[in-house]
Design goal:
The chain is of the alpha/beta class. It contains 15 helices and 20 strands. It folds into 2 domains: 5-9 and 16-81 and 169-316 and 428-514, Spore Coat Polysaccharide Biosynthesis Protein SpsA, Chain A, CATH 3.90.550.10; 83-167, no CATH class.
């Protein structure tokens, strides 16, 4: 495959090498293997379910330790709000008020989303903002009929020359309406962080955002900082990073040739949230909470959410203490048979690590080396909620090429749908991952792991996209909580569904978790 001098300059300007591009094209040509599901992770077999006394004990453990450790909250927040309004853009494009009523349009097209939106209109957090704007831009608004008023309302929300809400990053969109103010998802994350991700009344938060919106986040923080700090008695240190250009991947045609734009330049695409492992790798804290930008609740539900976060953190601290203790035991190289058995039992039962069938045949020296290698890894404790039809990756036992079985969070795109057995295992899943993670990214000496060394690069996947009306193939890196953490030690714990309240469409803002009453 020939690349011109100009191509190579373009590749290197992104921080990539020609060799990396050739490897990426090789993946397109060879195809990426599906994951081999061994079993669904369920309660008692991969997922822990805690009773109230255990939950309280872990919360207490975290509370006792929190002021002696460094804590960080990591929030992927680069998503735009565009998808939230997809059905409304479709409505504006298709609906003709001269030909039919909105009700007729809804019935004809079975647009349940539009019906819900119009019924709940006045409960939206930005309702008053839109009404104020529409009265300014449409002088005869009050004289219009029902249908035309609704059309003008939606236009005012979405059009570029008006409020242009779909352009906002999701984190800065009005999410909740209180008596005194309207808050964004960004602001709600600060209130949450004060409850469970603060130490000595200081909360450190890191948001991964789109660089073009950095000034907007800065302005929002300046606007709310004094009020939030006063109401939470917490000082906030906020940092931002962007998805690195060097994590972009090359796009190809269906013949696996480099895809070129109208100027004959190579086309690169962002490689999905898996690229954020690089951002996470640059952070330094004893405990890192990970939660998506749109998964927040109004203030009256925050304490319950915080309790479960602290429970997961308590489990992490407990497991980490034991893992570090056992590594130090192994370092001494003087172990009794019972001590070795205790460590093996911990690795297998507490860390869900599949011990090799050959382990008992190994020499003592190699057994020690083997156990230490299994113990000395980053740890993630992941909340799992019962699956009630929400989209999201699921918890499964996965078998890799070497026959090793491990707990993984798996997306449906990673599974061979043509295999009856794999489809059956997927059907047996009882839970899914709401992106509710607490991570320990330091080793027993207090040094940060190089997280890029624990990625399973074969769990990348290929997706179909378009550019300028032409089809292309894109390569997405292993997802942040999927293949990017494939070789971490993993613990799954059930948390209640009410801790998961994402906003995927604008109508989600009408659900109880986002409303005061």
């Amino acid at each position: 495959m020939n690349f011109t001098k100009k191509d190579i300059q373009q590749i290197e300007a992104k921080g990539l090498t020609l060799e990396q591009i050739k490897v990426q094209i090789g993946l397109f040509k060879a195809g990426l293997p599906f994951l081999n599901l061994k079993d669904a992770a369920i309660i008692g077999k991969g997922i822990q379910k805690l009773e109230a006394p255990e939950k309280e004990a872990y919360i207490q453990k975290f509370q006792e330790r929190r002021n002696n450790i460094s804590i960080l909250k990591f929030v992927p927040a680069s998503g735009a709000a565009t998808r939230m309004f997809k059905f409304l853009f479709q409505f504006l494009a298709e609906y003709n008020p001269e030909k039919e009523s909105i009700n007729a349009y809804i019935n004809k097209n079975k647009t349940k989303d539009l019906s819900v939106f119009l019924i709940g209109l006045e409960k939206l957090p930005f309702f008053e903002q839109v009404i104020h704007k529409v009265h300014k831009s449409v002088s005869n608004f009050n004289d219009l009929g029902y249908d035309l008023q609704r059309v003008e309302f939606v236009k005012t929300m979405l059009e570029e020359t008006q409020l242009n809400l779909a352009f906002y990053p999701k984190g800065l969109l009005p999410f909740h309406r209180y008596k005194q103010n309207v808050s964004t998802a960004f602001e709600e994350h600060l209130f949450e962080a004060a409850l469970y991700a603060s130490s000595n009344n200081v909360a450190n938060l890191h948001f991964t955002i789109s660089e073009k919106h950095k000034h907007r986040f800065d302005e929002e923080f300046k606007f709310i900082e004094e009020d939030v700090e006063k109401r939470t008695n917490t000082k906030f240190n906020i940092t931002f990073s962007y998805q690195k250009e060097s994590t972009d991947t090359i796009a190809v045609t269906h013949k696996n040739e480099p895809f070129r734009d109208e100027n004959n330049q190579l086309v690169f695409r962002p490689s999905g949230h898996g690229a954020l492992i690089e951002n996470l790798n640059g952070l330094n804290a004893d405990i890192i909470f990970i939660k998506n930008i749109d998964n927040v609740v109004v203030k009256k539900y925050k304490n319950e959410v915080a309790d479960y976060k602290m429970m997961l953190a308590g489990i992490l601290l407990d497991v980490q203490e034991k893992a570090f203790y056992h590594i130090k035991q192994l370092d001494k190289n003087q172990l009794s048979e019972s001590e070795l058995l205790e460590i093996t039992h911990f690795v297998s039962n507490r860390l869900n690590v599949s011990i090799s069938n050959e382990f008992e045949k190994y020499s003592l020296k190699y057994q020690i080396k083997y156990l230490k290698e299994k113990l000395n890894r980053p740890i993630r404790v992941c909340g799992m909620v019962k699956n009630e039809g929400e989209p999201g990756g699921g918890p499964f036992w996965v078998k890799d090429e070497s026959g090793t079985i491990s707990l993984q969070i798996v997306e449906s795109a990673q599974v061979d749908k043509d295999s009856r057995l794999q489809k059956e295992i997927m059907k047996n899943a009882t839970h899914f991952n709401p992106v509710d993670l607490v991570c320990g990214t330091k080793n027993y000496l207090g040094e940060s792991f190089d997280l890029t060394k624990f990625v399973d690069h074969k769990t990348a996947f290929i997706s179909e996209k378009t550019k300028s009306g032409k089809n292309l193939k894109a390569l997405e890196l292993p997802g942040l909580w999927n293949g990017a953490m494939a070789n971490w030690n993993t613990i799954f714990v059930e948390v209640p569904l009410r801790t998961f309240n994402p906003v995927k469409t604008v109508n989600d803002l009408l659900k109880p978790a986002h409303q005061l009453t």
